[in-house]
Amino acid sequence: MTTEGTVEAFRRAEELLAQRRPLEALRVLEPVLDVDADKPSVQLLLGRAYYFSAQLRRAERAFLRVLEFDPSDHYARLVLGRTLQRLGRLHEARAQLRLAAMMHPSPAYQEALGEINAHIATRS
């Protein structure tokens, strides 16, 4: 696949994900992974597609891979936290969401952290 074709496929996968069509996005991403699997942006998009198609363990692996490349990626930590939350691993989720909220103190991140804290409190 040419560089131009890779970029086009990546953008198409982003569009499909925005349209809530994660399985189609995964199919479109396949040739991109053959060429650029080590790019954090590709792994992040892959993880989001897995997340939205409820392939949570695969999503976790993709987000962890992004964090191997860049441990300071606050968004990867946020979506990893959300993934762990859906997997029922609340304390691990809280740790990731805390880091994300400290790195990027936006209302959405604070809300996600508050939500996980409430889930943990109700289970105690």
Describe the structure.
This protein has 124 residues and is mostly helical. The protein has 2 domains: 1-70, Serine Threonine Protein Phosphatase 5, Tetratricopeptide repeat (Alpha Horseshoe); 71-124, no CATH class. Helices cover 82% and strands 0% of the residues. It is built from 7 helices and no strands. It has helices spanning 3-18, 22-36, 40-52, 56-69, 74-86, 90-103, 107-123. Helix 1 runs parallel beside helix 3 (40-52) and helix 2 (22-36) runs antiparallel to helix 3 (40-52). The chain is elongated, with a radius of gyration of 15 Å. The termini are far apart. 36% of the residues are buried. The mean pLDDT is 96.
Compact summary:
82% of the residues lie in helices and 0% in strands. It contains seven helices and no strands.
Write the layout of secondary structure elements.
Elements: H1 3-18, H2 22-36, H3 40-52, H4 56-69, H5 74-86, H6 90-103, H7 107-123
Structural class: mainly alpha
Q: How would you characterize the largest beta sheet?
A: none
CATH fold title of the largest domain: Serine Threonine Protein Phosphatase 5, Tetratricopeptide repeat
CATH superfamily placement of the largest domain: Tetratricopeptide repeat domain
User: What is the overall pLDDT average?
Assistant: 96
What is the N-to-C succession of helices and strands?
Answer: HHHHHHH
Distance between the termini: 52 Å
Query: Class of the largest domain in CATH?
Result: Mainly Alpha
Q: Regions with pLDDT < 50 over 5+ consecutive residues? A: none
Number of domains: 2
User: What is the architecture of the largest domain at the second tier of CATH?
Assistant: Alpha Horseshoe
- The proportion of residues forming helix, as a percent range, comes to over 70%
Backbone shape: elongated
- Helical segment count: 7
